Amino acid sequence: MRLALDAARAAAATGEVPVGAVIVRNGEVIATGANCPRATFDPTAHAEIVAIRAAARTLGRDRLDDCDLWVTLEPCAMCAGAIAHARIARLYYGADDPKGGAIVHGPRLFAQPTCHHRPELYAGIGEAESAELLRAFFAARRCSAPL
Q1: Distance (Å, rounded) from C-alpha 12 to C-alpha 87?
Q2: Which of 52, 72, 89, 128 has the fewest beta carbons closer than 10 A?
Q3: How far apart are the C-alpha atoms of 11 and 100, rounded to whole Å?
Q4: Contact (Cβ atoms closer than 8 angstroms) between residue 11 and residue 36
Q5: Which residue among 48, 120, 127, 129 is the active-site one?
Q6: CA distance 40 to 44
Q7: Is residue 120 flagged as an active site residue?
């Protein structure tokens, strides 16, 4: 999770929402991702998607069934769908996202009968640090917003 938090900090430094992701296979980091939709003009460039794409390229395959995903924030519906389609084995995430999350909040995608793959879930890993990064990022934006 430390590497995912580092990626989240790097995203924040560029003005992106601070979310970071890391994909691990057999104990080795094979991909990292940081939120970058603004920089890439790509609304799908969430940290999880960036990491999944990089891992798939690295392994030369679309199925990541022997990989673990570490991410600092509960994935949204788009990212949860990508996690299921990639067949990620285990999902570790930091902070819950009551507004946009889709794992334990919102649609609870992995609990739906239409979801064909459900990774093992581990929530709350690095939760305090992940949540603080997000709070500080959005507090700074509110303070600097024009009236």
Answers
A1: 29
A2: 128
A3: 18
A4: yes
A5: 48
A6: 10
A7: no
